[in-house]
Amino acid sequence: MKRVKTQGIAYIEPLDGSRGAWYWGTDYASGDLYEAQELFRDGHPVRSNRLLFVHYPDGRVVEPVAAKEGQYFGRPIFYEGKIHILMVDFPAGEIKIARYDDTLDRTAPVAEVPLSAVKDCYNLMLETSPLMLARHGMEDSFQLIWPERVSFPIGERESFLFREGERLYFSAWQDEPEYHEEVLVRRMDTGEIVERIPGTLKFMPDGQRWLLT
User: Fold this and answer.
1) Is the pTM of this model over 0.85?
2) Which side of the chain, N or C, has fewer Cβ within a 10 Å radius?
């Protein structure tokens, strides 16, 4: 039995994009990122969460960034061999993206975006590819915030999957006449649907994409 010292964080999950090499965990001190923003807007203190990463198979733990009062981490992602961290600094009104290079044990800033660029932090996520900051709003809209700015409506049963060039891939489901799923391919500039692919897309640990039909 391997002892992994996470200092109270009892749940970890695979880090998207790392192909099983990394896991991540947080303590959700003030809920998720959206709930932390609601607390701040209502004038309540935001107790910063901790964000740590566990390397597999050795169980080595790293905590690249220590959050300060009023700051809160979102869901991280692994891209081009490095950990990418999403954090919002509510008092400063900034969304920050940082990159952690484990081989150098070094964290570097990638981008800063004004918090005013988004209506709220609901489903604010790092996505690929390339590395992007995006948001799937409660009002059934998709917003690409960084590095490009794009916004268009989507269906209430759609969720973003990935980007490939100027095409954005979404998963959609229907329950009539019976439950089924399909992949919708949209133009990035207009959101227009250019292709519908019947089936369910699954991301495999080695990076393959399998379409179950």
Assistant:
1) yes
2) N
